[in-house]
C-alpha cells in the first residue's frame, strides 16, 4: 500500500497526558500537512512542511502542539498536556508540488479521545 | 478572506442525479477540489478542477465552475447507495498553497 499511513488509528488518553501521532506520507511527496477535524466540521489546517521545513502554523496550533518532520519523510504531531477540547480526528496528508498542481492525498486519520 | 460554504445536507433518490453546490470567496484560488468521506474514514480525493476550466467530467462525476460567481458544483449521475457519504468542497489558496475546506454536505440516498 503506497498511500498515506497514520498511526495509531485510535487513541484514548486521560486529560493531562501527552500523545504522539505519526504520519508516513506517500514516498516521493515533498509536502506534508496536518489537519484537525471535529464532528460536523470540515478539516481545519494546522501546519505543513516542505521537505523538513515547517512553512506555516495555524493559530489553532497552541504551544501544546508540536510537529516535526526531521528527515523530510515521516512526521510526528505531539500534543502535550491534552485537554478534552483536543478530542478530534487528526488527519495527515501529503502531496507532490509541481508546476502543474498540488493534489493532496489524505490518510485515514488518527482519532483522539481525551477523557 | 478564505471561506468555503456548502449546504449541509442533501437527500436524493437512488438512480437520480445528485448536485452538490459550493461557494468560495478567495479569487486567487487556483485549484478546487471535491473530496468524499465515509463514516470513520479519511478523505478520498474524487476530482479537482483548475480555475481556468469551466467543466470537468470523469465517469459519473461532472464538476462545473463559475469563476465569476465563485460557484462550484459536483454532479453525480445515477446516484448509488455507495455514494452515501459527506462531500467536501475545498480550494487551494494560491498565495500560501494550503487547502481550505468547507463543512461538508452529507448526501443521503433514498431507496
Characterization of this structure:
- The complex is a heterodimer of chains A (115) and B (111).
- Chain A is mainly beta and 115 residues long.
- Helix content of chain A is 0%, strand content 50%.
- Chain A contains no helices and 11 strands.
- Chain A has strands spanning 5-7, 10-13, 19-24, 31-37, 44-50, 53-57, 65-68, 75-79, 88-95, 104-106, 110-114.
- In chain A, the strands form 2 sheets. In chain A, strands 2, 4, 5, 6, 9, 10 and 11 form a 7-stranded mixed β-sheet that branches.
- The termini of chain A are far apart.
- Chain B starts with a strand and ends with a strand.
- Chain B contains no helices and 11 strands.
- Chain B is mainly beta.
- Chains A and B meet through β5 and β10 of A and β4, β5, β9 and β10 of B.
Shape estimate of chain A = globular
Largest sheet of chain A, in brief, is: 7 strands, mixed
Q: What fraction of residues of chain A sit in β-strands?
A: over 45%
Which structural class should the secondary elements of chain A be placed in? mainly beta
Please specify the SSE layout and strand pairing:
The complex is a heterodimer of chains A (115) and B (111).
Chain A: E1 5-7, E2 10-13, E3 19-24, E4 31-37, E5 44-50, E6 53-57, E7 65-68, E8 75-79, E9 88-95, E10 104-106, E11 110-114
Parallel strand pairs in A: 2-11
Antiparallel strand pairs in A: 1-3, 3-8, 4-5, 4-9, 5-6, 7-8, 9-10, 9-11
Chain B: E1 4-6, E2 9-13, E3 18-24, E4 29-37, E5 43-50, E6 55-58, E7 61-66, E8 71-76, E9 85-93, E10 99-101, E11 105-110
Parallel strand pairs in B: 2-11
Antiparallel strand pairs in B: 1-3, 3-8, 4-5, 4-9, 6-7, 7-8, 9-10, 9-11
Amino acid at each position: 500500500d503506497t498511500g498515506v499511513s497514520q498511526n495509531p488509528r485510535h487513541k484514548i488518553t486521560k486529560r493531562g497526558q501527552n500523545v504522539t501521532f505519526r504520519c508516513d506520507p506517500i514516498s516521493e511527496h515533498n509536502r506534508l500537512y496536518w489537519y484537525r477535524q471535529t464532528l460536523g466540521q470540515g478539516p481545519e489546517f494546522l501546519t505543513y512542511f516542505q521537505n523538513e521545513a515547517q512553512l506555516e502554523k495555524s493559530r489553532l496550533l497552541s504551544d501544546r502542539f508540536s510537529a516535526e518532520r526531521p528527515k523530510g519523510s515521516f512526521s510526528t504531531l505531539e500534543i502535550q498536556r491534552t485537554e478534552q477540547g483536543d478530542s478530534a480526528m487528526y488527519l495527515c496528508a501529503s502531496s507532490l508540488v509541481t508546476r502543474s498542481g498540488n493534489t493532496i492525498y489524505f490518510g485515514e486519520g488518527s482519532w483522539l479521545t481525551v477523557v | 478572506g478564505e471561506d468555503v460554504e456548502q449546504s449541509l445536507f442533501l437527500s436524493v433518490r437512488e438512480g437520480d442525479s445528485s448536485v452538490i453546490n459550493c461557494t468560495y470567496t478567495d479569487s486567487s484560488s487556483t485549484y478546487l477540489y471535491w473530496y468524499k468521506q465515509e463514516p470513520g474514514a479519511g478523505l478520498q480525493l474524487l476530482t479537482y478542477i483548475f480555475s481556468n476550466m469551466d467543466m470537468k467530467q470523469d465517469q459519473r462525476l461532472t464538476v462545473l465552475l463559475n469563476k465569476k460567481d465563485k460557484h462550484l458544483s459536483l454532479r453525480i449521475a445515477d446516484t448509488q447507495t455507495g455514494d452515501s457519504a459527506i462531500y467536501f468542497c475545498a480550494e487551494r489558496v494560491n498565495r500560501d498553497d494550503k487547502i481550505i475546506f468547507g463543512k461538508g454536505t452529507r448526501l443521503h440516498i433514498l431507496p
